[in-house]
Design brief:
The complex is a heterodimer of chains A (387) and B (134). In chain A, 50% of the residues lie in helices and 11% in strands. Chain A is an alpha/beta fold. Chain A has a 6-stranded parallel sheet, with helices on both faces. In chain A, strands 6-7 form a two-stranded antiparallel ribbon. Chain B has 134 residues and is of the alpha/beta class. Chain B has helices at residues 8-19, 22-27, 80-87, 93-98, 108-112, 115-126; strands spanning 3-4, 32-40, 46-54, 57-64, 74-79, 102-105, 130-131. Classes of the chains: A alpha/beta (387), B alpha/beta (134). Chain A binds chain B through residues 1-3, 110, 112-113, 115-118, 158, 161, 201-202, 355-356, 358, 360-361, and chain B through 91-92, 94-95, 97-99, 101, 103-104, 107-109, 112-113, 115-116, 119.
Chain lengths: 387, 134
């Protein structure tokens, strides 16, 4: 038995207009200071006003939101009593919105232990709208939430099916001004979601097609969106690809790139997409060395040489590295400005965190601590995986 | 010869399998906590296995007459058919928990940090040749 779920997705360059038909009284924004300063919150508020909704704004979400931030947002929600929660921004804002919403509905819940095995009974007080302003995280279409335990220097990769947004507004006008660097980082996050959704232990018939389509869209349109951020067609397809990949991995799972990427992000503060995308080709090679993978399927779908699994793996890893080159995306940890000393000092913590990350267990080939250490070392130096 | 599931004989074989697992010993190195594994039979009755797990070792495993006999920190329960699918590796244990085929009660924050240990526990169970009741 398995369950496929998806939010209602409104997409297109006028998707925000859909909010004019929202039924409700009060909306509570969970967002960051930039969204407020650059007028994104106001744009959404204008649509809500047409629908007759008042709103309050919590604009204090930081990159890699902490448990404490979520608790502060939830306390303000309790005062305001909204019937809609709006997560507006990148993955951090949307993830914080999910967790704060859960605490608003269930004040006694432990935000560090949000899990899919528990019944929370959400939607008694409010429902959730997710509005992404980057094309990467896919959080608008998933039940995952990643928070950071700042004391333990650890990302908590958690989730509950009840946290799936009721409505995802995928409006590509919100990403037209994204800087090239963010376009590259978030785009590689999409690719990693899609590849890992297709190649993990819980991949299934319902998620497979979405994963393949997201890989194809990203390979085709990410270089275009990177080269010309005003290309509306490329931006639109990348924004859709992010949500599609999100639905795919929300209904399958992820893998080793995310376990390592979460660890790198928490310990050495590398942006999420940059971290997971950097590890992806190494993980493809490592996992393929264990046999029985599906990378050749992806290569075949992309019309890369894939007469057998080995050829497909090689072609896919090469295509990922080629894409990285086109968008000036780092392929070695050393390229991120991490000194050898800093790396060696961080390595034990990097391994410990990755070994404890739940996504590790869905990778088709399990990596033990020794292998994780070697993977980090190979990624630091940019060596292809030979074990 | 297959051993009937959730009986004293099965408990002893499972304990032996857990204690023979080097992978479990490493994965559960810091684990402290006891469990019930509860199998629900078609006739409405239950079989309840008590497990005392401590720092990579299964210190004790035996069947209790009733779930009210002890108060373990964690409890995993489900129909015998659900246990069978997990132990025969036809269903991933996390998949079984997420779809409520198996239900887990206890401190989730603690158990979420020990997913690998839980997987190795299931792997040990697969080593026991098991006969499942209809």
């Amino acid at each position: 038995m398995w369950i496929f779920s998806s939010p209602k997705v409104v997409f297109g360059d006028d998707a925000l207009e859909h909010l004019e038909h929202l039924q409700g009284k009060r909306a509570f924004f969970v967002t960051d200071a930039n969204m407020l300063a650059f007028g994104f919150v106001e744009r959404v508020q204008q649509r809500l006003a047409v629908a007759g909704l008042d709103s309050a704004v919590f604009a204090e979400v930081e990159p890699n939101p902490s448990l404490q931030t979520v608790q502060r947002a939830a306390a303000l929600m309790a005062d305001y009593q909204p019937d809609w929660i709006i997560g507006l921004g990148g993955g951090s804002a949307m993830d914080a919105a999910k967790a704060a919403w859960l605490l608003y509905e269930c004040p006694d819940a432990d935000p560090a232990a949000i899990n899919p095995m528990e019944d929370y009974g959400l939607r008694q007080k409010a429902r959730l709208i997710a509005i992404p302003t980057t094309s990467g995280t896919g959080s608008e279409a998933t039940w995952a939430t990643v928070l950071t335990d700042t004391e333990a220097q650890m990302k908590l990769s958690m989730g509950s099916p009840e946290l799936l947004p009721d409505l995802a507004i995928v409006d590509s006008t919100l990403v037209m001004g994204l800087p090239a660097r963010i376009t590259a980082d978030t785009g590689m996050d999409v690719l990693t979601h899609a590849v890992e959704a297709y190649t993990n232990t819980l991949a299934n018939d319902f998620s497979d097609g979405l994963a393949l389509k997201a890989v194809q869209l990203t390979m085709r349109y990410l270089p275009v969106a990177y080269a010309d951020g005003s290309d509306a067609e490329a931006r639109g397809h990348m924004h859709n690809a992010a949500a599609i990949a999100g639905i795919a991995f929300s209904n399958a799972m992820l893998g080793l790139s995310h376990a390592m990427g979460h660890s790198l992000g928490a310990v050495l503060h590398v942006p999420h997409g940059r971290a997971v995308g950097l590890f992806l080709p190494y993980v493809v090679e490592f996992t393929a060395n264990g046999g029985g993978t599906r990378y050749a399927d992806i290569a075949h779908f992309l019309r890369l040489p894939a007469e057998d699994e080995a050829a497909g793996v090689a072609a896919l890893a090469a295509a990922i590295r080629s894409l990285s080159a086109q968008i000036n995306f780092a392929t070695r940890l050393e390229d991120l400005g991490i000194s050898r000393d800093a790396f060696e000092q961080a390595l034990p913590k990097l391994v410990t965190n990755a070994a404890a990350d739940n996504q590790l267990f869905f990778n088709l080939r399990f990596a033990d601590n020794d292998e994780l250490e070697k993977l980090f070392r190979y990624a630091y130096e940019g060596r292809s995986i030979d074990f | 010869m297959a051993i009937p599931f959730l009986t004293d004989e099965w408990a002893a074989a499972f304990q032996s399998a857990v204690n023979g697992s080097a992978a479990y010993k490493v994965a559960a190195e810091t684990w402290e906590g006891d469990f019930y594994f509860i199998g629900e039979l078609a006739n409405g009755s239950q079989r309840v296995l008590y497990l005392d797990l401590w720092h990579g070792e299964c210190r004790n495993a035996y069947i209790v007459a009733s779930a009210s006999d002890k108060s373990p920190e964690f409890e995993v329960s489900g129909k015998i058919g659900s246990w069978k699918k997990v132990i025969e590796k036809k269903t991933d244990p996390i998949q079984a928990l997420m779809t409520r085929q198996l239900k887990l009660k206890g401190n989730m924050a603690k158990v979420l940090k020990s997913v690998k240990a839980a997987q190795e526990l299931v792997n040990a169970a697969t080593l026991v040749s098991t006969e499942f009741p209809e």
